[in-house]
Design the sequence.
């Protein structure tokens, strides 16, 4: 005990204090949250969660704006999200779609949140409608595809599948829970890209901001067996490549009631037209840049999920890149009017061709080979016209391509009319 | 003398020195050059001086580059300044222009400095050619128009006028000597603008950098009496306005040798197409911005007077506004290919129409009213096609307008073919 001098006592005291401090620090550090990007999610969202309201707790701005697609009804000059009946505004469509369900009702569509209600109320629905028609209408799909497989999903009748489908288009259609990265959820798109040798997993985020729209905004068809959803992209995505694919597999959507031609009904090929060397696509602009422009809420920047026509808010949609928004909107109007005027001429030519073929077919001693040529030209003309007519931008997505295609369609429609005339007897005069 | 004290002497001396200084300063100031903008011209150029070499002493950069138009032979994909024969590359033109001098020779034109030599060597020249054909070929014109009046100038036979015409296109065609401001020198342009209620004297300099090109790069015609140079702009400058004007005055350039239709031959309506709501024109871009881009020579900036295709030097022509020149040139190629492909389809339709009309006309008992309708459609189709074909940009000056017009032209050409078929006997089948 004698050896415990004052100095030793002081040194020991210091050591004890240091040890206590060290232990305290270790304890403190152990209980610190680990460093990470962003903020903690409020809820953990399950993969393929169908209910967007669950995701919405973590992403209120995105969710709130998605909800706005239910009521964002705005009519633009040629489209928008107000459900007008196209065949009433343009009765030529009744002749052009004779024999197809679109002649019984061709409503302009509403925003994403109404997709489910609208598909259930379309007059084109029948007992034969396959479940495939739900493919682009619900955020329940990714989970159902994973559980059932797309083949079984598509083979289920529409009305039978209805009980499993509760939610309209939502977060799960484009996002992976957790990482929130953009993903291809529609197996048909994944397969179509693979057939072209493309793997979307290697795409950049900016590319995905276009590609996820191709989950739905594309031309597609159902196979005759099993109504399997398929994109006709094996030879490429231009209208000529798609036509060539359909010809090769001998496909048609319907027989034209008046002309008797085997027809293709094109479905909104927005992605195909946009990516065919359009000025915006080639400049690296994504669908989302214009249709879901970045918006500020205080200090937060987010993609506006109230997806709609950029013409509804050009200051946000165009203004991010273009300084003179008035000039730009003026350009859109000029381009769309050129396309609209040209498209109306194409429709007149189609109606004339259909009438001439109908009449030739009713003529005794008609030249059957010439008549077949006329029908084949009718098919080629109308699928081109429909590529632009069914597309949702009145040609703005790609104006020079839209006008090129419409010019070819008009040419072919008039040639169909000529061939019909020749089939019915004019042939002798024009040899 | 006594009064001359030392002080007085000193004061007097000061006054004398000041007086001398004042006189010297006045003398100095009087001989100072007056303050002015710019530098003194080396030579005083007379108004309407025909010899560009005289102006060139004051403006060596502009003159040197103007001289380069003599040898700037560059072939672009669809044009350029190499004199190839268009009817050899595209034999459909021989049918389309049957009965018109252009079927005897349709050479691609060379640069401005070759204008005079080329017009004197064109195979389209005949003894009947009026002096009017010199209107766009020489810097002697402004002086001759002032001295003779345009009516007398135009009424003089081409070969007779030749002795008075020495210089190719030059400074005097666009500039006022002294001020060097841009002016309209062609009386036909002045009159055409006035008929539209426009006074070019009120135009801005940037507007004039487009308007002076309209001295020549326009659609025009010669009146049947006196070959008076006239621009058909009274109703406007769109193809439909021009067509309507020609119809109203009952004008035609030639009778088509094969179809018998009364035809309009369009001449390079570059100005009309460009100003019809093209994206560049509406954005305030002038012809000179792309075809005479600003160039630096040391500290001096000048408009390059080696007028040619912007594709020859896109870095200067496009790069002044567009940061990504490769992207922009890619756009030009895409647009021009769309227009070219569409134009080839129009030509095929025209050739088919011409053949069908020719055959119908040779058919006994032809329906004359239907035949007249076919010819009228041939005229309407071909003048539209020619509006784009004769224009010097393969549609790039205004792509959506070019494609709109070509689509309409194809439609009309096929309708002409149909009407001819009906006239020759198909009519009974298609009523």
Sequence:
């Amino acid at each position: 005990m004698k050896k415990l001098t004052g100095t030793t006592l002081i040194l020991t005291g210091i050591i004890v204090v240091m040890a206590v401090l060290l232990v305290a620090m270790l304890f403190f550090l152990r209980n610190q949250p680990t460093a990470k990007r962003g903020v903690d999610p409020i809820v953990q969202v399950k993969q393929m969660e169908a209910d967007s309201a669950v995701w919405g707790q973590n992403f209120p701005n995105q969710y709130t704006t998605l909800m706005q697609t239910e009521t964002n009804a705005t009519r633009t000059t040629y489209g928008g999200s107000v459900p007008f009946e196209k065949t009433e505004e343009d009765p030529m469509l009744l002749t052009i779609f004779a024999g197809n369900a679109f002649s019984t009702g061709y409503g302009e569509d509403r925003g994403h949140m109404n997709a489910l209600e609208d598909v259930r109320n379309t007059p084109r629905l029948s007992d034969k409608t396959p479940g495939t028609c739900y493919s682009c209408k619900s955020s329940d799909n990714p989970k159902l595809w994973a559980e059932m497989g797309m083949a079984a999903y598509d083979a289920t009748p529409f009305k039978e599948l209805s009980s499993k489908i509760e939610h309209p288009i939502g977060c799960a259609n484009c996002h992976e829970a957790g990482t929130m990265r953009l993903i291809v959820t529609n197996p048909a798109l994944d397969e179509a890209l693979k057939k072209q040798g493309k793997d979307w997993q290697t795409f950049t985020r900016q590319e995905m901001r276009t590609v996820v729209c191709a989950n739905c905004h594309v031309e597609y068809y159902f196979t005759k067996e099993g109504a399997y959803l398929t994109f006709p992209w094996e030879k490429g995505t231009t209208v000529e490549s798609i036509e060539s694919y359909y010809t090769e597999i001998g496909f048609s959507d319907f027989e034209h009631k008046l002309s008797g031609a085997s027809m293709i009904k094109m479905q909104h090929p927005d992605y195909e037209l946009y990516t065919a060397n359009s000025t915006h696509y080639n400049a690296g602009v994504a669908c989302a840049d214009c249709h879901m422009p970045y918006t500020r809420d205080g200090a937060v920047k987010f993609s506006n999920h109230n997806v709609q026509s950029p013409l509804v808010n050009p200051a946000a949609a165009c203004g991010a890149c273009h300084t003179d928004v008035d000039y730009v909107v003026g350009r859109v109007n000029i381009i769309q009017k050129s396309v609209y005027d040209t498209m109306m001429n194409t429709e007149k030519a189609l109606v004339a061709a259909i009438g001439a073929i109908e009449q030739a077919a009713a003529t005794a001693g008609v030249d059957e080979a010439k008549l077949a040529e006329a029908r084949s030209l009718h098919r080629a003309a109308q699928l081109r016209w429909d590529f632009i007519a069914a597309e949702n931008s009145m040609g703005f997505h790609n104006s020079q391509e839209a006008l090129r295609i419409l010019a070819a369609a008009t040419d072919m429609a008039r040639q169909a009319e000529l061939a019909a005339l020749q089939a019915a007897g004019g042939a002798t005069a024009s040899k």
Observations:
- Strands of chain A lie at 221-222, 229-230, 254-255, 262-263, 294-297, 300-303.
- The interface with chain B takes residues 277, 279, 282-283, 324, 327, 330-331, 334-335, 338-339, 341-342, 345-346, 349, 356, 359-360, 363, 399-401, 403-404, 406-408, 410-411, 414-415, 417-418, 420-422, 424-426, 428-430 of chain A (CB under 8 Å).
- The first strand of chain A starts at residue 221 and ends at 222.
- The first helix of chain A runs from residue 6 to 30.
